[in-house]
Design goal:
single chain, Rossmann fold, 7-stranded parallel β-sheet, 6-stranded parallel β-sheet, 18 helices, 13 strands, 48% helix, 14% strand, globular, glycosyltransferase
Length: 408
């Protein structure tokens, strides 16, 4: 049987050891497509992706487009002009596709040939999906799939808006993003989302819910932790995760330490900002706050934790960090944003957006983890089945099949 020719477009690349959950999703998708299709992956040729291209787990055929080194003075001037224009455009439209990538695509005969020959084009993240109109012109007959990792219009609407200027700016960005989302959906053959909540936000037509493959299927039952460790796992370079970490230190953790002076808070994940590093360094001795950074073995962190805290207040979409903790059977305390889109019953040891109440939930588990662990044992079985690799692969394979939906 002839294998389908697939072009995967993402502004990020998954690889072994990638420090963020979205990259781990891409890694699993890349592996599936590399194994079962003739895959060409297109991404922007920035420094981060050039480094990623040298790591294990990237597709066999990976084209990095844009940011090409200039040939001579004119080439350098043109590249600088493109980067400047991209930066300015993103101030008005943060969800826009990468201008260097678009120009790199138009320059690359190999990339355009792959698109013209593709049976399926798979677009990851909204900024890639924004290219659907251009791709449809390059190949009118191909099947184009778009995966919304989150709903950007909702994410933009949740940005802090403390001043009239903030409200005008983010209100305008969210409105423009919503208009783009409606246009993208009309032009796609298949729309993938990570939750029914996101499907409802995006609206008609019906969407396919794909559950990210966040469970390897053999995570052991969680045993009671020997120490009162509260773990926060996230890619700390992301703005919403950085703000969540600072909010936790300033408003949640003092309440926890008041109830449990022996408690330890561990921030696990790469990309800590200078602001966060400075805040942790300035804490008095014995504050119990540790900045662990990136670790190779997340399972060990979850195994040593009494509570997994997910304190995000911004962003949109399913929070992979919440699902990962559930898959490892750790009692989870989270905000409503951290819990949204995850549709199991009775999953959490506590949810609240009030820092004092959130701290009460954490302290209760630290004092007596048995009721929360019993709930988490049941939640773990559900999460491992719902977010397992077999179910993910089955859903993705179905999206390759042409079902007759005519693009707008």
């Amino acid at each position: 049987m002839t294998r389908p020719r697939v072009v995967l477009i993402s502004m990020y690349v998954g690889h072994e050891g990638v420090p963020h959950a979205g990259g781990r999703y891409l890694l699993e998708l890349q592996r599936l497509l590399d194994d079962e299709t003739e895959l060409t992956m297109l991404t922007v040729g920035n420094r981060l992706n050039h480094e990623a291209a040298t790591r294990p787990g990237v597709p066999r055929t990976l084209l990095l487009l844009g940011h090409e080194s200039g040939r001579g003075l004119l080439g350098k001037v043109l590249n600088r002009a493109v980067l400047t224009a991209d930066t300015r455009w993103r101030r008005r439209d943060p969800g826009a596709p990468s201008l260097p990538f678009v120009l790199g695509l138009m320059r690359s005969r190999q990339a355009r040939r792959a698109i013209r020959d593709a049976d399926v084009i798979d677009l990851q993240y909204s900024e890639s999906i924004r290219l659907v109109r251009l791709l449809r012109r390059l190949n009118p007959r191909t099947r184009i799939i778009g995966t919304f990792h989150d709903v950007m219009s909702q994410s933009f609407s949740r940005e802090p808006q403390h001043t009239p200027e903030d409200r005008r700016y983010w209100g305008g960005v969210a409105a423009r993003s919503r208009a783009h989302e409606r246009d993208m959906i009309r032009r796609l053959d298949e729309v993938l989302v990570f939750s029914r909540k996101d499907a409802e936000l995006l609206g008609d037509p019906p969407h396919t819910v794909v559950h990210p493959p966040l469970s390897v299927g053999d995570e052991p039952p969680h045993q009671p932790a020997a120490e009162p460790v509260v773990v926060v796992v996230s890619y700390l370079a992301r703005d919403e995760n950085n703000k969540a970490a600072l909010w936790t230190i300033d408003t949640v953790w003092p309440h926890v330490r008041s109830a449990r002076p022996d408690a330890v808070l561990r921030f696990v994940g790469g990309g800590a900002t200078d602001e966060l590093r400075s805040r942790v360094a300035d804490l008095p001795p014995g504050s119990g706050v540790e900045l662990a950074g990136f670790v190779d073995n997340l399972s060990a962190e979850y195994a040593g934790a009494a509570v997994a805290l997910v304190p995000v207040l911004q962003g949109a979409g399913v929070k992979f960090k919440t699902v990962e903790a559930l898959c490892h059977g750790v009692p989870v305390v989270t905000t409503t944003v951290g819990a949204e889109g995850i549709e199991g019953d009775d999953l959490y040891a506590g949810t609240s957006d009030d820092p004092a109440v959130l701290a009460e939930h954490v302290a209760r588990v630290l004092d007596d983890g048995r009721p929360a662990q019993s709930r988490s044992d049941t939640a773990q079985k559900w999460a491992q089945q719902t977010y397992g690799r077999d179910r993910f692969a089955e859903t993705i394979r179905r999206t390759w099949v042409r079902r007759g939906r005519a693009p707008a």
